[in-house]
Amino acid sequence: MKITDTRIVEENLFRFLIQLEIMRAIRYQNYVTLLLMEPDQGVEDNSKLTDLAEILHEEIRGTDIIGRLDRTRFGAILLHADLKSAYLASARIHSRTKDYFSGNNNGFTISIGGACCPSNSTDSGALSMLAESMLAIAREKGGNSISFPNGKESA
């Protein structure tokens, strides 16, 4: 997959980096949180995805990692972020996206799912599956929401 924005890593590198950061978090007894974000509706216009990527860059720290996992799905690796701080970052991203697209692109909303190491799992595969599950729960609630395994949910 070709990515034109060099600040966003491609899927294979992103998957490698989540494994690396989980090992680092375990070794140094820190947290790392995986966020998955996806539009709630089909996106035909790539400019919306470009705008979403820019919002992600503005709302997360410069040391965190953003990846494009497929055509419409983004992931973020939040370093040294426990569930509480990851939820707050997710809420900022969600709110900013909602505000940005409310006027000129009605109907464009995102759902966010997240999971934290070591709070939820220390295995990258299990953490990824849990984040996927949380994203699915956010979407099943009708979309435009955030879901974490600790019960923190928002619409």
Task: Describe the overall structure.
The protein is an alpha/beta fold and 155 residues long. It has a single domain, classed as Reverse transcriptase/Diguanylate cyclase domain (Alpha-Beta Plaits, 2-Layer Sandwich), CATH 3.30.70. The chain has 4 helices and 7 strands. Strands 1-3-4-2-5-6-7 form a 7-stranded mixed beta sheet, with helices on both faces. A hairpin with a 5-residue loop joins strand 6 and strand 7. Helix 2 packs across helix 3. The chain is globular, with a radius of gyration of 14 Å. The model has no long low-confidence stretch (mean pLDDT 88).
State the helix count: 4
What is the CATH level 1 assignment? Alpha Beta
| The named CATH superfamily | Reverse transcriptase/Diguanylate cyclase domain
H/E element string? EHEHEEHEHEE
Instruction: State the low-pLDDT regions, or none.
Output: none
Largest sheet: 7 strands, mixed
- Molecular shape: globular
Count of individual domains: 1
Termini gap:
32 Å
The number of distinct β-strands equals 7
Walk across the major sheet and give the strand order: 1-3-4-2-5-6-7
CATH architectural grouping: 2-Layer Sandwich
- The secondary-structure class comes to alpha/beta
Q: Could you please say which CATH topology applies here?
A: Alpha-Beta Plaits
Kindly estimate the percentage of residues that lie in beta strands according to DSSP: 15-25%
Q: What is the radius of gyration? A: 14 Å
Averaging pLDDT over every residue, what do you get? 88
Helical amount among residues, as a percent range?
40-55%
